[in-house]
Amino acid sequence: MPLTRRYHVPSALRLSATRIHADHARRLLDSGATLVDVRRRDDPALTLPGSIRIPPDEIPARLAELPRDTPIVLACT
Fold first, then answer.
1. Residue 40 — pLDDT band, cuts 50, 70, 90?
2. CB 37: neighbour CB atoms within 10 A?
3. Distance from the CA of 67 to the CA of which of 11, 32, 44, 51 falls in 20 to 30 A?
4. Beta-carbon contacts of residue 31 (< 8 Å; ≥ 6 apart)
5. Which domains does the chain have, with CATH numbers?
6. Is the alpha carbon torsion for 7, 12, 14, 20 positive or negative?
7. Sign of the dihedral through C-alpha 56, 53, 22, 13
8. First CA to last CA across the chain, in angstroms?
9. Kind of pairing between the strands at 34-37 and 72-75
C-alpha cells in the first residue's frame, strides 16, 4: 500500500477549524451552503442526503468540486 498524506479536514479548507451547533449548520444549509460528508470510504454508513462525499484524503485533489462563493459545512457523523 502506498503512503498517503493525511490532512486535518478543516485546515485543508480554511486557516482554523470552526465547530458549529447543528442548528446553525441547518440554517446555513437552508440558506444554500454546501454539505460535504467527510467520512472515509471504509465507513459503512450511508451518505448524508444532499451531500457531496469527499473523504479527508481526497479533499486536496477535489477542491475544484467545492464552491468558492458559498459556505461549506463539513459533516463527519
1. confident
2. 21
3. 44
4. 71
5. 9-75 (3.40.250.10)
6. negative
7. positive
8. 27
9. parallel
**pLDDT higher than threshold 90 for residue 33:** yes
Dihedral (Cα; 71, 12, 61, 32), 10-degree rounding: -10
C-alpha cell at 48: 448524508
What's the confidence (pLDDT) of residue 6?
Answer: 45
Alpha carbon distance 9, 36 (integer Å): 11
Is pLDDT at 5 greater than 50 in this prediction? no
Q: Could you report the per-residue pLDDT of 44-70, keeping only the tens digit for each?
A: 667 788 899 998 888 889 999 999 888
Task: Report the alpha-carbon angle 7-28-40, nearest 5.
Answer: 30
